[in-house]
Amino acid sequence: MELILGYLFIFMARCTDVSMATIRTIMVVRGKKIQAAMIGFVEIIIYILAINKVLTGMDNMLNVFFYAMGFAAGNYVGILIEEKMAIGTLIAQIITKRDIEKFSSYLREKGFGVTVTEGHGKEGKISILNVVLNRKDIRNFEVCVDKYDKDAFITIMDARNIKGGYFRKRQGIGIKKK
Description:
Blueprint: H1 2-29, H2 33-55, H3 61-85, E1 89-95, H4 100-109, E2 113-121, E3 124-134, H5 138-148, E4 153-159, H6 165-171
Antiparallel strand pairs: 1-3, 1-4, 2-3
Helix pairs in contact: 1-2, 1-3
């Protein structure tokens, strides 16, 4: 029973610390220093406890096996957690052959801020709809775009920082309340 509990501890500890590493890395990329540091502190304690258990029992290859399984599972779980958290902001660009004024009005009615810019493509002049949105709104955004134009060309990029504009007003940031 003690061996099984040891394997379970190694697996769970490694799964937890790798999941935390995934979230910590995202916090670092997003510039969230305090959150990244706090996660890193707990993460390394768990890591040291897990690696100690494996290294003191190196004669038992199942320790190594469960360590590796925990690592693999931790990557998977970390990605699932990150997807649920949906931290961050995205910038979407839409190129469409549909009526640009109606399309931008439609997206604005759905609560998205839209800026239209002109560009030149292979077939000449094009219009590009630029939309800034929260990651948690990506599914709703994609549904709206597909509903209006299922053939639209969409690129979506991460935004590190957003300042000012419609997006800021929509979130209620910086608005003085009377």
